[in-house]
Amino acid sequence: MKINIDENTRLELTAQQHAEGLFNAVDKNRAHLSEFLPWVGHMQSVANFSDYIRYCETLYEQGQEVSFVIISDEIPVGRIGLHHINAQNKCAAIGYWLAKSAEGKGIITKSCKALISYGFKEVGLQRIEIKAATGNLKSQAIPKKLNFTREGVLRQAELVNGQFLDLVLYAMLNEEWEQALLSFEG
């Protein structure tokens, strides 16, 4: 599955063919990514990514996750996905990361818009959350731009580099997204 974002960027369903490209993106951005992402240190080889992708494929088959590789100018520059899909309550959380060289181009904002629409229309979700560390202002800027509601702070909710980080919780409901889309166009 592919979702075109713009003339230079697309989302491709995470697959084994992406292992080497994802490893290269992480390897070149370790300091940048590890500040807020706990898994970076575990990705030390293409084989590590290959194992992780097998796990992602299993979650996809079980309906628990839909994750994509962000391809910009034919190079993998990050990932985005609907994680922790709860079919009973029709909710999920968006997670994303991007190589430093790809920042500032609107890639994550545009990718989130496409993924949110996919989540509400194709997956049938009612609620989508985005969580970002209180110190990660770039990541928090995304749900703010997309008119998500800030619901609060989850105290010491994620262990990163031996420290517990507080996470800001943002959420969007299906009916709110329709209104948000109209405000983007106007």
Automatic annotation (TrEMBL):
Q: Which SUPFAM superfamilies match?
A: Acyl-CoA N-acyltransferases (Nat) (SSF55729)
Q: Which domain of life is it from?
A: Bacteria
N-terminal signal peptide: none
Q: What is this protein called?
A: GNAT family N-acetyltransferase
**Transferase: is it a keyword of this entry?**
yes
Cite the entry's keywords alphabetically.
Transferase
Q: Spell out the PANTHER family in the cross-references.
A: RIBOSOMAL-PROTEIN-SERINE ACETYLTRANSFERASE
What sequence ranges are listed for the domain N-acetyltransferase?
A: 21-174
Gene3D superfamilies registered for this protein in UniProt? 3.40.630.30
| GO molecular function per UniProt | protein N-terminal-serine acetyltransferase activity; protein-N-terminal-alanine acetyltransferase activity
A cellular component term (GO) from this record? Answer: cytoplasm
Q: Which InterPro entries match?
A: Acyl_CoA_acyltransferase (IPR016181), GNAT_dom (IPR000182), Ribosomal_N-acetyltransferase (IPR051908)
What species does this protein belong to?
Answer: Pedobacter steynii
